[in-house]
Here is the input.
Amino acid sequence: MSKEKFLQDIKKGYTFKGESIVLGAAMLDGETQTNALVKLPLRMLNRHGLIAGATGSGKTKTLQIIAEQLSANSVPVLLMDVKGDLSGIGAESITNPKIEERHTAIGLPFTPDNSPIEFLSLSDEPGARLRATVTEFGPVLFSKILTLNETQSSIVSVIFKYCDDENLPLLDLKDVKKTLNYVMDEGKEEFQELYGRMSSASIGAIMRKIIQLEQQGAEQFFGERSFDVDDLCRLDENGKGMVSIIRLTDIQDRPKLFSTFMLQILAEIYASFPEEGDIEQPKLAIFIDEAHLVFDKASDALMDQIESIIKLIRSKGVGIFFITQNPADVPDAVLGQLGLKIQHALRAFTAKDRKAIKLAAQNYPLTDYYDVEQLLTELGIGEALVTVLNEKGIPTPLAHTMLRAPQSRMDILSKGEISDILGKSKLTKKYNEEIDRESAYEILTKKIEEFQSEEHQETLKKQKQKASKSRTRSRKKEKSTFEKIVNNTTTRQIGRTVARELTRGLLGVLGINTTRSRRKKSSWF
Here is the structure.
């Protein structure tokens, strides 16, 4: 195939009627074709995308390029910063000879620029805190996160219904645990009368699942104030899209928490954003770095939920982009929904690697210009294979692309720069205020205390009544014993004998004394 035909195909395939962003220039036989620009149509970026490649191949810089270009075109962006290397998008880059050489080859001038950024946090990292209440999850999603079976899920649904009926807000995990304890102990009779009996074994299983989630730090995520997803869709005073960076460097070993958060925020966006249909550019673009953390150890139910949201959220004007080392990290059902594919170099160190490369090559359109399987192992840093959907939904020709350099800093911000941004942040002040209003935990604790107090008073009353009865029985027993002794025949006989002998004794003494007295009187005369 001739070079002229190649350039013709590239220019035709990457020319769009609507607005687009420039990713770089096409390459043929290892040479950059100046002005053969590879572009991404804004109109089609809500069809989602994939950025894949081995460690050190340039995935993060590609993410940075697309995010800053979207921001410049008034598209808000949400970045999942797992490695902590995306904050530099908030500062201008400094040009150097290598950058100038690359842009000269592409045919594109280099202009340093930065994007307005906001730091968000799911854990102890600095930034506006992301929280959601258990009620906002709902019983179905909450059960799927806990990977409960059908019986356990039905119990969770009943618990949510009970809390709705009794005006018991479920804000955090301790509310759920307190409610489960209450309906199996103090409130058991009241609950069973209205909602039926529940297995204590199933309740115990649910409690263990909640504790398992707590051990990954989920108690920091559940609670108030709930994050309003509309705050992700802001523009700055210059009309640039706000780039919200969620700092996730300390949750790499907690995939359960990461999956929980991702599923919740996607579900919240889908539930709250209005239907947009086909719009000229996305309302929000979400980049999920280290995407395998979302899918690793995810249950089948959780995977089904993620797949459903990915398929449906496009109509809300939201584009989702997964960044990972190998396309195989993303399930086929999700991979099939991704219209944009950017593939950096893959390494063929083992037989398994070679098999993965062969499978990855099959994800791209057929081309007469490249041996894709071989080229995947020969791509240099800052090079990638690119294909995207055109405005008719047809994949563009596969282009070996020399990527432009990021206009923002290719390094992280200093602690001082981060502190300055946090100090000016309105979201940090809004969401870092601690709120602990009365919820199921406090309400049920009071009921338990009242119940225990009433039970204690009733116990004291019973003890007093028992003591009173005991004293009455004792007095009756004493009286009865005395009467028996007095009325007994033997007792009466003994009494008469004693009385008679006493009388005799007294009379005998009196008789003797009387006789002696008479004798004395007679002797005087």
